[in-house]
Design brief:
Elements (H helix, E strand, L loop, with lengths): L6 E10 L5 E7 L4 E9 L2 E8 L9 E8 L4 E6 L3 E3 L8 E9 L4 E5 L3 E3 L4 E10 L4 E10 L8 E10 L2 E10 L18 E8 L11 E2 L4 E5 L4 E8 L2 H15 L1
Length: 252
């Protein structure tokens, strides 16, 4: 920890264990990012990210990397929602996630919601780098403010690359100081929760997902690669999760 915030980097490496399962030779958490292995399901290793301290706070610099080697399967969740809070400094906090998935490997990245509390300022990036034969399910959920609270400023960038080709690169800024229109009808339309679900599967190359609206608040979009994006907005975190779970059930 420094006078301007916490510096922490958590790392996960998943590899086949040679017995039909997945080993975790690297499971290393720091600061507020504690990592816990939980009971495996079939050949899939499971990890929970546990908040060991409050954060991210203003000025914090947090990073989490996960690498899934060929033939391995990894499921990563979190024990509770992450809450971005104001800190002693007015500096922006950063939370950077890097995901690497090899051929014939699968990553299910399913953390709980990120809540932007009043007075906070957080820039979060998620960058997923996949080879042509990799599989990914990635969920991202953001909630603007706690109950009855105005949100802080939250900027998020989500990038997905497959075989060296960018198939998704989007950024959304919300809250005080964000570019005008973020809460207008073309973006959140007054809703307080926004989420994405990215699904990458090699078979989508032969059978692409069909674009469609899923009710009034969600849309399924094929990406320029073996991937699909579900984007949704909702009044609260519970209804957002319900929308994303219903969409994921379609794939599973």
């Amino acid at each position: 920890m420094t006078a301007t915030g916490v510096r922490a980097h958590a790392r996960i490496v998943a590899r086949p264990d040679g017995r039909g399962g997945t080993a975790l030779p690297v499971l290393d958490g720091e600061g507020p990012l504690a990592l816990r292995r939980t009971r495996a399901a079939g050949g899939e290793a499971r990890v929970l990210v546990v908040g060991a301290m409050s954060g991210p706070l203003g000025g914090d610099r947090l990073a989490l990397t996960a690498s899934v080697a060929e033939g391995a399967r990894l499921h990563v969740g979190s024990a509770a929602a992450t809450i971005a809070l104001p800190g002693q400094t007015k500096a922006e906090a950063r939370y950077d996630v890097r995901l690497d998935v090899a051929d014939d490997a699968e990553l299910r990245w399913l953390p709980e919601q990120l809540i932007s509390a009043g007075g906070s300022d957080l820039y979060v990036t998620t960058h997923a780098e996949l080879t042509a034969g990799a599989r990914l399910v990635l969920r991202e959920e953001q909630v603007l403010g706690r109950s009855g609270e105005e949100p802080g400023r939250l900027t998020s960038r989500l990038t997905v690359r497959i075989a060296g080709r960018t198939v998704l690169d989007q950024e959304l800024a919300c809250g005080p100081g964000a570019p005008g229109g973020w809460d207008g009808p073309a973006v959140l339309a007054g809703q307080r929760a926004v989420g994405q679900l990215v699904v990458v599967r090699p078979e989508f190359a032969q059978e692409p997902v069909r674009a469609q609206a899923l009710g009034e608040c969600a849309a399924l979009i094929p990406l320029a690669g073996p991937a699909a994006l579900l984007s949704a907005v909702a009044p609260d975190a519970l209804r957002l999760r319900r929308l994303l779970d219903e969409a994921l059930a379609r794939f599973d």
